[in-house]
Amino acid sequence: MAANPSTSTSSASPLTKVQLNTWYTKWHVHVVNGLSNNKILLVHCKSADDDLGIHNLAVDSETQCNFKLNLIGSTLFFCYMASESDHVHARLDVFWEDPNLFHVCDWKRCIWTAKDNGIYLKNIPENHDEFMHGWEMGSVLLANSTIV
């Protein structure tokens, strides 16, 4: 007896289908300078394969990267951010393969904003910024430095 197409179920879970769709999605990661008082934000982002260079961002400006996920599920981007005038810095992952992150980023766009009290990720479906990482006090890598 043949299965009725209207009642048959797929053996793939919804998460698996979503994961398959994410491989075809072009992802966008934005880093925005939301600091006050015209403070410059130094940003240096990298992945295992790409060094996106050093950017000095004026207030309300941004840098971004665009990419597709690798097929082995290990796409990772991280950034070093610093405000030399405040002597604060942070190093954090800004993209990793995780369904919770995909949801917060609305399955295509992660928006990170550096603010005076730390770094926030925009929860796009809920339309608010979520605190993700505090600043660390101390030495700041200058624009001609590299991160490891």
Automatic annotation (TrEMBL):
Pfam families: Self-incomp_S1. It is found in: Secreted. Keywords: Secreted, Self-incompatibility, Signal. The keyword Secreted applies. Its main location: secreted. InterPro entries: Self-incomp_S1. Belongs to the plant self-incompatibility (S1) protein family. PANTHER family: PLANT SELF-INCOMPATIBILITY PROTEIN S1 FAMILY-RELATED, PTHR31232. This is S-protein homolog. It comes from Hibiscus sabdariffa. The lineage of its organism: Eukaryota, Viridiplantae, Streptophyta, Embryophyta, Tracheophyta.
